[in-house]
Amino acid sequence: MAKKTRREFFKLAGTGAAAASLSTLLACSPKQGGPQTESGGTSLKLGMASYTFREFGLEETLAMTKRLGLTRICFKSFHLALESKEKEIKAVAKKVKDNGLDLYGCGVVYMKNKQEVDRAFDYAKAAGMRMIIGVPNHELLELVNKKVQEYNIKVAIHNHGPGDELYPTPESIYERIKDLDSRIGLCLDIGHTQRSGINPSDSALKFADRLLDVHFKDVTAPTKEGRAVEVGRGVIDIPQFLRTLLKINYSGIASLEYEKDGRDPLPGAAESVGYVKGVLSVL
User: Fold this and answer.
1) The CATH number of 40-281 is which of 3.40.30.10, 3.20.20.150, 2.102.10.10, 3.40.50.1820?
2) Nearest-10 Cα torsion for 266, 272, 277, 282
3) pLDDT tens-place string over residues 245-272
Protein backbone atom coordinates (compact mmCIF):
# COMPACT_ATOMS: atom_id res chain seq x y z
CA MET A 1 0.00 0.00 0.00
CA ALA A 2 1.34 3.46 -0.87
CA LYS A 3 2.27 5.60 2.08
CA LYS A 4 -0.26 8.38 2.66
CA THR A 5 1.09 11.91 2.90
CA ARG A 6 0.57 13.98 6.01
CA ARG A 7 -1.71 16.35 4.06
CA GLU A 8 -3.88 13.45 2.92
CA PHE A 9 -4.10 12.20 6.48
CA PHE A 10 -5.37 15.51 7.86
CA LYS A 11 -7.75 15.91 4.94
CA LEU A 12 -9.26 12.59 5.93
CA ALA A 13 -9.41 13.77 9.52
CA GLY A 14 -11.82 16.50 8.45
CA THR A 15 -14.27 13.87 7.25
CA GLY A 16 -13.90 11.68 10.32
CA ALA A 17 -12.06 8.96 8.38
CA ALA A 18 -8.52 9.59 9.60
CA ALA A 19 -8.50 6.93 12.29
CA ALA A 20 -9.75 4.26 9.92
CA SER A 21 -7.22 5.27 7.29
CA LEU A 22 -4.29 5.15 9.71
CA SER A 23 -5.51 1.85 11.12
CA THR A 24 -5.55 0.41 7.61
CA LEU A 25 -2.10 1.81 6.93
CA LEU A 26 -0.71 0.09 10.03
CA ALA A 27 -2.71 -3.11 9.75
CA CYS A 28 0.32 -5.04 8.56
CA SER A 29 1.52 -5.12 12.18
CA PRO A 30 -0.17 -7.05 15.01
CA LYS A 31 -1.62 -4.81 17.67
CA GLN A 32 0.59 -4.57 20.75
CA GLY A 33 -1.01 -4.60 24.17
CA GLY A 34 0.13 -2.74 27.24
CA PRO A 35 -1.01 -0.58 30.11
CA GLN A 36 -2.63 2.76 29.35
CA THR A 37 0.02 5.49 29.45
CA GLU A 38 0.59 9.02 28.21
CA SER A 39 2.09 7.56 25.03
CA GLY A 40 -1.19 6.58 23.45
CA GLY A 41 -2.25 3.32 25.05
CA THR A 42 0.99 1.31 24.78
CA SER A 43 3.78 0.60 27.22
CA LEU A 44 6.19 2.85 25.31
CA LYS A 45 7.48 5.65 27.53
CA LEU A 46 7.79 9.13 26.02
CA GLY A 47 9.93 11.94 27.38
CA MET A 48 11.44 15.33 26.65
CA ALA A 49 15.04 16.19 25.80
CA SER A 50 15.30 19.67 27.28
CA TYR A 51 17.49 20.82 24.37
CA THR A 52 14.11 21.44 22.76
CA PHE A 53 13.70 24.43 25.12
CA ARG A 54 17.30 25.65 24.94
CA GLU A 55 16.18 29.27 24.58
CA PHE A 56 14.12 29.13 27.77
CA GLY A 57 14.82 28.99 31.48
CA LEU A 58 14.17 26.15 33.89
CA GLU A 59 10.70 27.20 35.00
CA GLU A 60 9.42 27.63 31.44
CA THR A 61 10.99 24.35 30.38
CA LEU A 62 9.23 22.44 33.14
CA ALA A 63 5.93 24.17 32.41
CA MET A 64 6.06 23.48 28.67
CA THR A 65 7.01 19.84 29.22
CA LYS A 66 3.97 19.43 31.45
CA ARG A 67 1.75 21.18 28.90
CA LEU A 68 2.79 18.54 26.39
CA GLY A 69 1.58 15.82 28.75
CA LEU A 70 5.06 14.37 29.25
CA THR A 71 6.30 13.25 32.65
CA ARG A 72 9.96 12.38 31.93
CA ILE A 73 12.76 14.79 31.10
CA CYS A 74 16.45 14.64 30.25
CA PHE A 75 18.35 17.85 31.02
CA LYS A 76 20.76 19.62 28.75
CA SER A 77 23.22 21.80 30.66
CA PHE A 78 21.24 24.94 29.71
CA HIS A 79 18.82 24.00 32.48
CA LEU A 80 21.29 22.73 35.05
CA ALA A 81 24.91 23.64 34.42
CA LEU A 82 27.43 20.84 34.69
CA GLU A 83 29.58 23.11 36.83
CA SER A 84 26.84 23.52 39.45
CA LYS A 85 27.58 22.78 43.08
CA GLU A 86 26.05 19.65 44.60
CA LYS A 87 23.64 21.70 46.71
CA GLU A 88 22.31 23.52 43.65
CA ILE A 89 22.00 20.29 41.66
CA LYS A 90 19.95 18.69 44.42
CA ALA A 91 17.73 21.77 44.74
CA VAL A 92 16.96 21.78 41.01
CA ALA A 93 16.32 18.02 41.03
CA LYS A 94 13.83 18.53 43.87
CA LYS A 95 12.10 21.28 41.91
CA VAL A 96 11.71 18.94 38.95
CA LYS A 97 10.26 16.24 41.17
CA ASP A 98 7.93 18.72 42.87
CA ASN A 99 6.62 19.57 39.39
CA GLY A 100 5.67 15.94 38.88
CA LEU A 101 8.47 15.17 36.43
CA ASP A 102 11.05 12.39 36.40
CA LEU A 103 14.55 13.78 35.79
CA TYR A 104 15.84 10.52 34.40
CA GLY A 105 19.03 11.70 32.75
CA CYS A 106 21.25 14.39 31.32
CA GLY A 107 22.79 15.05 27.94
CA VAL A 108 24.20 15.28 25.54
CA VAL A 109 27.32 15.49 27.76
CA TYR A 110 30.69 15.63 26.02
CA MET A 111 33.59 14.00 27.82
CA LYS A 112 37.01 14.90 26.44
CA ASN A 113 39.18 14.20 29.47
CA LYS A 114 39.14 12.42 32.84
CA GLN A 115 37.92 15.50 34.69
CA GLU A 116 34.87 15.75 32.45
CA VAL A 117 34.07 12.06 32.97
CA ASP A 118 34.33 12.48 36.74
CA ARG A 119 32.19 15.60 36.64
CA ALA A 120 29.47 13.95 34.56
CA PHE A 121 29.06 11.04 36.95
CA ASP A 122 29.14 13.22 40.08
CA TYR A 123 26.56 15.54 38.50
CA ALA A 124 24.24 12.67 37.58
CA LYS A 125 24.60 11.08 41.02
CA ALA A 126 23.83 14.34 42.84
CA ALA A 127 20.69 14.81 40.74
CA GLY A 128 19.54 11.22 41.20
CA MET A 129 19.70 10.61 37.46
CA ARG A 130 19.77 7.06 36.12
CA MET A 131 21.46 7.81 32.82
CA ILE A 132 24.02 9.99 31.10
CA ILE A 133 23.52 10.55 27.38
CA GLY A 134 27.10 11.16 26.47
CA VAL A 135 29.87 11.43 23.94
CA PRO A 136 33.08 10.22 25.59
CA ASN A 137 36.28 10.29 23.59
CA HIS A 138 37.31 6.81 22.49
CA GLU A 139 40.33 6.69 24.78
CA LEU A 140 38.06 7.34 27.78
CA LEU A 141 35.74 4.37 27.28
CA GLU A 142 37.60 2.14 29.72
CA LEU A 143 37.34 4.84 32.37
CA VAL A 144 33.63 5.25 31.61
CA ASN A 145 33.26 1.49 31.97
CA LYS A 146 34.77 1.65 35.47
CA LYS A 147 32.58 4.59 36.43
CA VAL A 148 29.42 2.82 35.30
CA GLN A 149 30.30 -0.11 37.53
CA GLU A 150 31.12 2.16 40.46
CA TYR A 151 28.09 4.46 40.22
CA ASN A 152 25.52 2.12 38.62
CA ILE A 153 24.54 4.92 36.24
CA LYS A 154 23.96 3.98 32.62
CA VAL A 155 25.74 5.73 29.75
CA ALA A 156 23.94 5.95 26.40
CA ILE A 157 26.33 7.12 23.68
CA HIS A 158 24.73 9.44 21.14
CA ASN A 159 25.32 9.25 17.38
CA HIS A 160 25.64 12.60 15.61
CA GLY A 161 25.43 11.75 11.93
CA PRO A 162 27.47 12.57 8.84
CA GLY A 163 30.64 14.51 9.52
CA ASP A 164 30.92 13.51 13.17
CA GLU A 165 34.38 12.12 13.90
CA LEU A 166 33.60 10.13 17.04
CA TYR A 167 30.24 8.41 16.65
CA PRO A 168 28.55 9.19 13.32
CA THR A 169 26.32 6.08 13.24
CA PRO A 170 24.79 3.63 15.71
CA GLU A 171 27.14 0.92 14.45
CA SER A 172 30.18 3.10 15.14
CA ILE A 173 29.06 3.16 18.78
CA TYR A 174 28.21 -0.51 19.02
CA GLU A 175 31.58 -1.65 17.71
CA ARG A 176 33.31 0.36 20.43
CA ILE A 177 31.15 -0.72 23.37
CA LYS A 178 29.97 -4.25 22.58
CA ASP A 179 32.52 -5.82 24.95
CA LEU A 180 32.00 -3.28 27.75
CA ASP A 181 29.53 -3.35 30.63
CA SER A 182 25.98 -3.76 29.32
CA ARG A 183 25.01 -0.53 31.10
CA ILE A 184 26.93 1.26 28.35
CA GLY A 185 24.83 1.39 25.21
CA LEU A 186 23.28 3.57 22.56
CA CYS A 187 21.18 6.69 22.53
CA LEU A 188 19.72 6.22 19.06
CA ASP A 189 19.18 9.64 17.50
CA ILE A 190 16.81 8.70 14.72
CA GLY A 191 17.27 12.00 12.88
CA HIS A 192 21.04 11.72 12.60
CA THR A 193 20.68 8.03 11.77
CA GLN A 194 18.36 8.83 8.86
CA ARG A 195 20.70 11.63 7.73
CA SER A 196 23.41 8.97 7.52
CA GLY A 197 21.26 7.09 5.00
CA ILE A 198 20.36 4.40 7.56
CA ASN A 199 16.82 3.35 8.43
CA PRO A 200 16.47 3.94 12.21
CA SER A 201 14.24 0.89 12.50
CA ASP A 202 17.02 -1.30 11.16
CA SER A 203 19.43 0.09 13.76
CA ALA A 204 16.93 -0.42 16.58
CA LEU A 205 16.54 -4.05 15.57
CA LYS A 206 20.24 -4.69 15.01
CA PHE A 207 21.39 -3.14 18.29
CA ALA A 208 18.35 -3.86 20.44
CA ASP A 209 20.46 -5.50 23.14
CA ARG A 210 22.27 -2.21 23.81
CA LEU A 211 19.54 0.31 23.03
CA LEU A 212 19.23 2.41 26.20
CA ASP A 213 17.70 5.69 25.01
CA VAL A 214 16.11 7.26 21.92
CA HIS A 215 16.14 10.84 20.68
CA PHE A 216 12.94 11.20 18.71
CA LYS A 217 12.71 13.64 15.80
CA ASP A 218 12.16 13.90 12.05
CA VAL A 219 14.25 15.30 9.19
CA THR A 220 13.63 16.59 5.69
CA ALA A 221 16.03 14.30 3.81
CA PRO A 222 17.98 11.03 4.29
CA THR A 223 21.24 12.86 3.62
CA LYS A 224 23.67 15.18 5.39
CA GLU A 225 21.54 18.09 4.18
CA GLY A 226 18.46 16.85 6.08
CA ARG A 227 17.10 19.41 8.51
CA ALA A 228 14.87 19.18 11.55
CA VAL A 229 11.11 19.25 11.01
CA GLU A 230 7.97 18.40 12.96
CA VAL A 231 7.64 14.66 13.56
CA GLY A 232 5.51 13.22 10.77
CA ARG A 233 6.38 15.89 8.22
CA GLY A 234 9.75 14.44 7.27
CA VAL A 235 11.15 11.31 5.62
CA ILE A 236 11.46 9.00 8.63
CA ASP A 237 8.90 6.20 8.65
CA ILE A 238 7.60 6.96 12.14
CA PRO A 239 4.94 4.20 12.25
CA GLN A 240 7.57 1.62 11.29
CA PHE A 241 9.96 2.89 13.95
CA LEU A 242 7.32 2.80 16.67
CA ARG A 243 6.31 -0.71 15.65
CA THR A 244 9.97 -1.70 15.88
CA LEU A 245 10.34 -0.34 19.44
CA LEU A 246 7.29 -2.33 20.47
CA LYS A 247 8.55 -5.44 18.67
CA ILE A 248 11.86 -5.42 20.54
CA ASN A 249 10.09 -4.64 23.84
CA TYR A 250 12.10 -1.46 24.21
CA SER A 251 11.99 -0.54 27.89
CA GLY A 252 13.80 2.79 27.73
CA ILE A 253 12.47 6.27 27.07
CA ALA A 254 11.89 7.86 23.68
CA SER A 255 12.53 11.57 24.27
CA LEU A 256 11.49 14.24 21.82
CA GLU A 257 14.40 16.42 20.76
CA TYR A 258 12.73 19.09 18.65
CA GLU A 259 15.52 21.15 17.11
CA LYS A 260 13.44 23.44 14.89
CA ASP A 261 12.03 26.84 15.99
CA GLY A 262 14.30 27.33 18.99
CA ARG A 263 12.57 30.54 20.07
CA ASP A 264 9.04 29.19 19.58
CA PRO A 265 9.23 25.40 19.93
CA LEU A 266 5.97 24.63 21.69
CA PRO A 267 3.64 24.46 18.63
CA GLY A 268 5.96 22.14 16.71
CA ALA A 269 6.71 20.07 19.77
CA ALA A 270 2.99 19.71 20.49
CA GLU A 271 2.34 18.67 16.91
CA SER A 272 5.17 16.12 17.12
CA VAL A 273 3.98 14.62 20.40
CA GLY A 274 0.41 14.54 19.12
CA TYR A 275 1.46 12.76 15.96
CA VAL A 276 3.40 10.11 17.87
CA LYS A 277 0.53 9.55 20.30
CA GLY A 278 -1.90 9.30 17.38
CA VAL A 279 0.16 6.61 15.71
CA LEU A 280 0.65 4.74 18.98
CA SER A 281 -3.09 4.79 19.63
CA VAL A 282 -3.70 2.47 16.66
CA LEU A 283 -0.69 0.18 17.06
Assistant:
1) 3.20.20.150
2) 150
3) 999 999 999 999 999 999 999 999 999 9
